[in-house]
């Protein structure tokens, strides 16, 4: 809502409010006028003193006319802030907060602390903006610091500056100076993020989102909620984010909320704040012995505030308790804070126990969230029982009633709205919005299904439902859309390589994307853009926004300098003051500057990308060559698993390289790159260049180079150590079958090295298959056959069979877990005609014959390893019509239960499709016979 108000308007609004706030502060030091409004005989002022006795510890307070600056500050300004936070959200408060505005003075003047950075190789000196490091003490404990600051401030209110205008003015001036100093020492909104005592209050009342707050994760704008922004001279808004905190409350408060849901400091702060607030208001009763002291507003003009510091701080049942007020205040507020935390934790345990006893399916996240929501609801309504009440009680009764109804009504609306939120719903909305963008890019004909609505009008469920009913949303396009979503999520740091499988699980279910397909897409993205999966490159939404802001500023600078285009690197301008200022403002490192300049120079960037792909392709060609070592030929089944993996990797790199060559076309380096590509993998280059979509998009000269007759050279056999090194390289593959196969072959070639690797693998928590293989490598004798590794053997033969070849690894491993290996001698009957077909049989070793009886004629067909013996009977759930016998002294069969097979057919549509294609070809072959 308020996120879309132009920055120019908000800038003038901030000026107006800041000037007004400073005038209020100035009135605390000098105000000879407003005291006249409080004299007892004033004809119309509601603030006029009534002369009624307000007892404090049994003694009436002697009141005198007073300036109203403090009364306005505590009675109107502070409660208005709380109201804004819950109803309109932080996106309004943070954009109008005077203190936040004043903290940005050093940035506006260009006076900010910087760190000097010198390049050891070039000697070039750069300056980077100072920021609070996330690993520092403050970066880890800022919520505790802010809450302690708030606690001290509330104690200070009661003790020192509730009624003493000079002390209050001094405190506010100190806070302003402190905020400006933080603006100098640290960049961005570091005051708001790490120091401001109001931040815990903002967190409690404005998360997950204000009642009328916007949904940043569904916004089409790159500038969301209250994030830092600036206005260019051309009048366009541009991000000024320097990524001072991640995740950033100003960019997407709900994302910050879900990320910190179970953080200990968040829990302490929320429960403790409720206790602290209750203790603050209750203390007035415990101190005065009645509620009149608070609701009359006398506390705000008490002439004895400082004089009473060493007087009794508690008055119960008509008796003063001899604890000085100076100590009683922190003791009472601290006790209530601890009690709030203890009761909050007890509520958590009680709800979780109820959840378990009643067999509810509430997740811990949902339980924690809803308790937080209730805490905020209670805190808001309890706060407004007291806050501003001395002023509200001066208004007509009808207005007071309307005021109370409005507060309860708005807070209840917020409660209902927030109660329905959940991390799963947020994630679903987030991903559906990304998916919506990908659907738009595919240019599908969807208008006929929307009945006049647009894609933006659809909710998360409707978007996925639409994708399921679109006839032209083919498997290829589904793959492309999912790839786009995953790419964007990785770019923004929403997911990483380790958690992407889990985070995107719900979306994969909606789109029928298997875990293996996800890994394949991840592999493709890693090939197309290796930096995308680089763990050393910081990937966060805040960091991306920071780099984008710098890039936009850089592009504008280049346009103003009338560069011939945005493809030229910055040369002599690199050391100009304006460019150095931009780098400091956005905290740009040399490496980041290289990334951005590459993005501004597409041609150079694409050449570098092509060279990088060629280097990776060269590595995988070397891996392919290493797998041709003569010693590996003794293990053909395992070797085939690795060779197919390597060939698949080569093809993926080749496809990415072809896409890059298309962008280069007639560039000078394009032909040379194409020649290198053709020489590395001539067969793949020639085949790919003549296929869609590359043939029609590549320049004719490039197609000619790629399809030229390849030359072969006789290379020496790879050295044994080279082969072992490449096998170790394959241990890093994501597929557990590839990992286990590589380890098995290492143990066959170099048993000592195999055992050494096996010793370290369990520490890295690899897959169950790799763990089992590692244990067997450590305990079995050297050069043990594949049959000594039963789990690996079953998966290898399933992988190599025509029937199961190419199915997802998860499906393959499920089959392997339930399959059984059986051995037969020559002449043994494997199955007999008339038997009920209960298993799918795969011949993995030896030979077998099947006898077809047709009248008086008998036809014998021989089977060889890798063939299925009874797939038709399994598919039709019929009895066996023919007898199968073993013909070799050592015949081994892999038996897969029919129930398991049927279950996987239902669970894996790709597997079902593949089985259907295989059996169609088998039926065609039988018909021809």
Identify the notable features of this structure and list them briefly:
single chain; 929 residues; alpha+beta; 4-stranded antiparallel beta sheet; 41 helices
How does this model look, in words?
With 929 residues, this protein is an alpha+beta fold. It contains 41 helices and 15 strands. Helix 1 (7-29) runs antiparallel to helix 7 (165-185), helix 2 crosses helix 3 (90-96) and helix 28 packs across helix 34. The longest helix has 33 residues, at 325-357.
State mean pLDDT (0 to 100 scale): 85
Cα-atom radius of gyration: 36 Å
Shape: elongated
Strand content: 5-15%
Oligomer: single chain
Number of continuous helical runs: 41
What structural category characterises the helix and strand content?
alpha+beta
Distance between the termini: 73 Å
Instruction: Summarize the main sheet.
Output: 4 strands, antiparallel
Number of strands: 15
State the low-pLDDT regions, or none: 563-575
Q: Helix content range of the residues, please? A: 55-70%
- Biggest sheet strand order reads 10-14-12-13
How would you summarize what this structure contains?
With 929 residues, this protein is α+β, with helices and mostly antiparallel strands. It contains 41 helices and 15 strands.
Q: Any chance you could write out the topology, listing elements then pairs?
A:
Elements: H1 7-29, E1 55-56, E2 59-60, H2 69-88, H3 90-96, H4 98-103, H5 105-109, E3 114-118, E4 125-129, H6 137-161, H7 165-185, H8 190-195, H9 199-206, E5 229-231, E6 237-239, H10 253-259, H11 264-288, H12 292-295, E7 312-316, E8 319-324, H13 325-357, H14 364-386, H15 389-392, H16 397-419, H17 423-441, H18 447-450, H19 460-469, H20 475-491, H21 500-503, H22 505-511, H23 515-528, H24 541-560, H25 577-585, H26 590-600, H27 602-626, H28 636-664, H29 668-680, H30 682-689, H31 694-697, H32 700-706, H33 720-730, H34 736-749, H35 751-760, H36 768-779, H37 790-800, H38 809-818, E9 820-824, E10 829-831, E11 839-845, E12 848-854, E13 857-863, H39 871-876, E14 883-886, E15 891-897, H40 898-907, H41 909-928
Antiparallel strand pairs: 1-2, 3-4, 5-6, 7-8, 9-15, 10-14, 11-15, 12-13, 12-14
Helix pairs in contact: 1-2, 1-7, 2-3, 2-9, 6-11, 6-13, 11-13, 11-14, 13-14, 14-16, 17-19, 17-20, 20-23, 27-28, 27-29, 28-29, 28-30, 28-34, 28-37, 29-30, 29-32, 33-34, 34-35, 34-36, 35-36, 37-38, 40-41
């Amino acid at each position: 809502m308020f996120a879309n108000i132009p920055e120019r308007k908000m800038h003038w609004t901030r000026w107006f409010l800041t000037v007004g706030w400073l005038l209020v502060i100035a009135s605390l030091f000098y105000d000879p006028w407003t005291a006249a409004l409080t004299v007892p005989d004033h004809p119309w002022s509601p603030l006029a003193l009534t002369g009624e006795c307000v007892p404090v510890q049994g003694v009436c307070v002697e009141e005198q006319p007073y300036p109203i600056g403090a009364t306005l500050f505590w009675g109107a300004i502070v409660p208005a802030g709380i109201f804004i936070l819950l109803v309109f959200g932080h996106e309004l408060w943070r954009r109008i907060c005077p203190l936040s505005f004043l903290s940005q003075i050093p940035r506006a003047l260009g006076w900010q602390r910087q760190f000097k950075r010198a390049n050891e190789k070039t000697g070039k000196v750069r300056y980077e903006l100072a920021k609070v490091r996330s690993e520092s003490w403050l970066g880890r404990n800022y919520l505790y610091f802010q809450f302690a600051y708030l606690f001290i401030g509330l104690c200070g209110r009661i003790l020192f500056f509730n009624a003493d205008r000079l002390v209050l003015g001094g405190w506010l001036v100190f806070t302003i100076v402190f905020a400006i100093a933080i603006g100098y020492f640290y960049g961005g909104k570091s005051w708001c993020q790490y120091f401001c005592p109001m931040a815990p209050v903002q967190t409690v009342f404005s998360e997950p989102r204000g009642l009328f707050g916007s949904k940043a994760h569904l916004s089409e704008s790159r500038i969301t909620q209250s994030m830092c922004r600036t206005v260019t001279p051309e009048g366009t808004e541009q991000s000024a984010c320097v990524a001072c905190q991640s995740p950033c409350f100003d960019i997407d408060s709900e994302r910050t909320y879900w990320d910190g849901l179970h953080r200990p400091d968040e829990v302490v702060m929320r429960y403790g704040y409720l206790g602290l607030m209750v203790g603050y208001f209750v203390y007035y009763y415990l101190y005065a012995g009645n509620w009149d002291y608070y609701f009359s507003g006398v506390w705000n003009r008490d002439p004895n505030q400082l004089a009473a510091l060493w007087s009794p701080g508690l008055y119960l049942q008509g008796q003063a308790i001899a604890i000085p007020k100076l100590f009683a205040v922190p003791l009472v507020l601290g006790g209530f804070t601890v009690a709030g935390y203890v009761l909050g934790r007890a509520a958590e345990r009680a709800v979780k126990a109820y959840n378990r006893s009643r067999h509810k399916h509430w997740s811990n996240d949902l339980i924690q969230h809803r308790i937080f929501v209730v805490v905020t609801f209670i805190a808001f309504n309890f706060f407004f029982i007291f806050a501003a009440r001395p002023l509200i009680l001066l208004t007509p009764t009808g207005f007071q009633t309307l005021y109370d109804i409005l507060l309860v009504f708005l807070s209840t609306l917020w409660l209902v709205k927030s109660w329905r939120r959940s991390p799963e719903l947020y994630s679903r909305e987030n991903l559906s919005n990304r998916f919506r963008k990908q659907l738009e890019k595919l240019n599908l004909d969807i208008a006929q299904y929307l009945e006049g609505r647009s894609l933006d009008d659809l909710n998360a469920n409707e978007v996925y439902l639409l994708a399921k009913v679109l006839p032209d949303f083919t498997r290829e396009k589904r793959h492309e859309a999912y790839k786009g979503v995953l790419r964007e999520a990785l770019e923004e740091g929403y997911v990483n390589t380790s958690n992407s499988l889990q985070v995107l699980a719900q979306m994969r279910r909606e789109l029928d994307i298997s875990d293996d397909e996800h890994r394949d897409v991840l592999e493709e993205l890693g090939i197309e853009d290796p930096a995308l999966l680089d763990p050393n490159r910081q990937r966060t939404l805040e960091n991306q926004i920071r780099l984008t802001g710098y890039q936009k500023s850089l592009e504008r600078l280049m346009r103003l300098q009338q560069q011939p285009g945005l493809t030229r690197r910055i040369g002599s301008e690199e050391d100009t003051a304006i460019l150095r200022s931009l780098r400091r403002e956005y905290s740009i490192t040399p490496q980041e500057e290289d990334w951005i300049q590459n993005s501004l120079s597409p041609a150079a960037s694409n050449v570098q990308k092509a060279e990088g792909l060629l280097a990776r392709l060269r590595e995988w060609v070397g891996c392919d060559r290493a797998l041709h070592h003569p010693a590996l030929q003794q293990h053909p089944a395992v070797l085939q698993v690795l060779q197919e993996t390597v060939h698949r990797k080569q093809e993926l790199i080749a496809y990415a390289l072809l896409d890059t060559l298309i962008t280069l076309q007639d560039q000078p380096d394009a032909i040379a790159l194409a020649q290198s590509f053709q020489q590395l993998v001539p067969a793949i280059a020639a085949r790919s260049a003549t296929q869609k979509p590359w043939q029609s998009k590549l320049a004719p000269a490039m197609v000619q180079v790629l399809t030229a007759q390849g030359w072969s050279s006789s290379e020496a056999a790879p050295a044994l150590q080279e082969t072992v090194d490449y096998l170790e390289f394959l241990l890093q593959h994501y597929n557990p079958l590839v990992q286990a196969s590589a380890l098995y072959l290492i143990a066959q070639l170099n048993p000592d090295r195999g055992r050494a690797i096996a010793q370290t693998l369990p520490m890295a928590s690899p897959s169950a298959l790799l763990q089992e293989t590692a244990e067997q490598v450590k305990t079995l004798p050297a050069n043990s056959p594949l049959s000594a590794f039963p789990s690996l053997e079953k998966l290898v033969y399933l992988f190599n069979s025509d029937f199961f070849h190419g199915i997802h690894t998860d499906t393959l491993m499920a089959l392997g877990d339930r399959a059984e290996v059986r051995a037969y001698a020559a002449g043994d009957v494997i199955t007999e005609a008339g038997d009920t077909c209960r298993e799918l049989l795969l011949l993995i070793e030896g030979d077998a014959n099947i006898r077809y009886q047709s009248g008086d004629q008998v036809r014998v067909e021989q089977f060889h390893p890798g063939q299925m013996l009874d797939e038709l009977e399994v598919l039709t759930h019929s009895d066996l019509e023919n007898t199968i016998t073993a013909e070799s002294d050592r015949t081994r069969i892999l038996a897969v239960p029919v129930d398991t097979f049927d279950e996987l057919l239902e669970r894996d549509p790709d597997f079902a499709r593949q089985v259907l294609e295989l059996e169609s070809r088998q039926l065609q072959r039988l018909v021809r016979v």
